[in-house]
């Protein structure tokens, strides 16, 4: 049976209900939008049928439109009267929110066929979302499908195919270590050791001996001979995490090693030749560090034959949901908490949050939410995130109407100097340009900006940006 949500003020007539049942639809009826939302949270429908009131009822129509807008994950088919199509805003609504529509009178066979198409399509999309990022081999075990991530995969591929030193830069928690591991695993060195060291976690006085090793008795606490990390990685890859925190003295020794590939342990009289590939990562701006004389420029150029940047999570809104689902699967396998789902509000909150701690923070938020959730549905209150703005019920409002086309834009007051204002202005400009580039097509604009259509509408409402209706 295929689950179907039907929203209609009046119960379905018997004949239609029987036909749908005979066509393998498991019908769940809701007579008002609130009940429909509730059902949708519990049942995870792929498709729904919204039956508009047959008699003129502006409020009733508006509530159905709001409901449909609030549940964009569902493929909606609406049944409505011919004359309703001409009503204010209805064509926009049909084009942008519905999978298809059906003009009264309701006919069971015809509606079942349309719903069947919607269902098939939804299944394919769902498979793509849940399967592809987890299995696609060229994604290097990383989750994410946004443009910036696809660009990252291309760079990782290039890095894996070559043997030059790589510098991975990016904010904390964006997957630099995962990227380094992925390069090693896909390179010709994959069978040899991968040794990762965190340069910030080792006291500066010890770093030298940790990297290069020491002979017994070479300094007071050197009770035994010790092989350094570089030698342990022989034939493989050495990952130097947080290289920006490496003391200048060690930088000089590392540079010497990169130039001649010879490791001389502390206290040793002879050096050994070691073949390792070095991948380094940093979340500090090394060019700035060079200017501040905290990092050697010559070492930077030795390390950065190829530089790869891992993107901020808030640059890739679509990936947030993929990652959240992925971490929920990890919760199931690692913590044994199964059958958890996100409420629509929880997903909206995850998308709205700005994620200063990036993927690491997202992972921790999902794990904590799973542990604090008492039922099976994760809601915003289970997640320890502080939103800068309230959840967008306003996102449910339909896009501006054509007649607003010549209206003066609703310019937000702008005070020079504050970061928030600068960000808002740049967000607004990007939005306007993206809409213009895509001839006001909401779906394409949302894709280009890497946000959902719901978020795009929210941004348009927030900045008072109208679509140019002539397009
Ligand atoms: N694209 C991704 N897909 C799946 N998991 C990810 C992704 N990016 C990051 N993670 C996870 O997020 C966490 C942080 O990743 P990682 O340690 O690689 O970040 P980092 O950039 O090296 O952080 P830092 O700069 O603080 O060392 C890890 O649990 C990692 O598995």
TrEMBL record:
Residue ranges annotated for the Sigma-54 factor interaction domain, each copy included: 142-371
Keyword Nucleotide-binding on entry: yes
Superkingdom of the organism of origin: Bacteria
Keyword list, A-Z: ATP-binding, Nucleotide-binding, Transcription, Transcription regulation
Biological source species: Thiorhodococcus fuscus
Family matches, as Pfam families: AAA_lid_14, HTH_8, Sigma54_activat, VpsR
Record InterPro entries: AAA+_ATPase, AAA_lid_NorR, CheY-like_superfamily, Homeodomain-like_sf, HTH_Fis, P-loop_NTPase, Sigma_54_int, Sigma_54_int_dom_ATP-bd_2
Keyword flag Transcription regulation: yes
Region Disordered, annotated ranges: 393-412
Protein name: Sigma 54-interacting transcriptional regulator
PROSITE patterns documented for this protein: SIGMA54_INTERACT_2 (PS00676), SIGMA54_INTERACT_4 (PS50045)
């Amino acid at each position: 049976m295929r689950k179907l949500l039907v929203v209609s003020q009046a119960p379905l007539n018997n004949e239609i209900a029987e036909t749908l049942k005979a066509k393998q639809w498991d019908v769940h009826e809701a007579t008002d939008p609130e009940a429909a939302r509730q059902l949708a949270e519990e049942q995870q429908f792929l498709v729904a049928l919204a039956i508009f009131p047959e008699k003129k009822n502006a409020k009733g129509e508006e509530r159905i439109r709001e409901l449909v807008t609030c549940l964009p994950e569902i493929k909606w088919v609406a049944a409505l009267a011919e004359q309703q199509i001409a009503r204010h805003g209805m064509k926009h609504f049909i084009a942008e929110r519905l999978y298809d529509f059906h003009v009264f009178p309701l006919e069971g066979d015809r509606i079942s066929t349309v719903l069947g198409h919607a269902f098939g399509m939804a299944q394919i999309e769902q498979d793509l979302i849940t399967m592809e990022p987890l299995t696609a081999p060229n994604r290097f075990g990383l989750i994410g499908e946004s443009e910036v991530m696809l660009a990252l995969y291309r760079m990782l591929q290039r890095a894996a195919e070559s043997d030059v030193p790589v510098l991975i830069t990016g904010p904390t928690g964006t997957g630099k270590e995962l990227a380094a591991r992925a390069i090693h695993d896909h390179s010709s060195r994959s069978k040899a050791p991968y040794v990762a060291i965190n340069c910030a976690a080792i006291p500066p006085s010890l770093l030298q001996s940790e990297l290069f090793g020491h002979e017994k008795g070479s300094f007071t606490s050197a009770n035994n001979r010790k092989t350094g990390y570089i030698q342990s990685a022989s034939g493989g890859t050495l990952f130097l995490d947080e290289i920006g925190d490496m003391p200048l003295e060690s930088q000089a020794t590392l540079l010497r090693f990169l130039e001649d590939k010879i490791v001389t342990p502390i206290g040793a009289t002879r050096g050994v030749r070691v073949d390792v590939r070095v991948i380094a990562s940093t979340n500090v701006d090394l060019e700035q560090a060079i200017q501040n004389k905290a990092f050697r420029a010559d070492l930077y150029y030795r390390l950065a034959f190829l530089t790869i940047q891992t993107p901020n999570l808030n640059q890739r809104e679509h990936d947030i949901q993929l990652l959240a689902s992925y971490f929920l699967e990890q919760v199931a396998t690692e913590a044994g908490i199964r059958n958890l789902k996100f409420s629509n509000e929880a997903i909206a909150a995850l998308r709205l949050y700005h994620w200063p701690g990036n993927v690491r923070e997202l992972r921790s938020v999902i794990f904590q939410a799973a542990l604090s959730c008492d039922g099976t549905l994760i809601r915003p209150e289970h997640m320890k995130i502080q939103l800068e703005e309230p959840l967008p019920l306003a996102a449910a409002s339909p896009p501006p109407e054509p007649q607003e086309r010549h209206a003066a834009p609703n310019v937000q007051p702008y005070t020079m100097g504050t970061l928030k204002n600068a960000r808002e202005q740049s967000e607004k400009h990007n939005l306007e340009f993206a809409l213009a580039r895509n001839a006001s097509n909401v779906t394409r604009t949302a894709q280009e900006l890497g946000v959902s259509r719901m978020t795009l509408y929210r941004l348009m409402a927030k900045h008072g940006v109208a679509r140019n209706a002539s397009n």
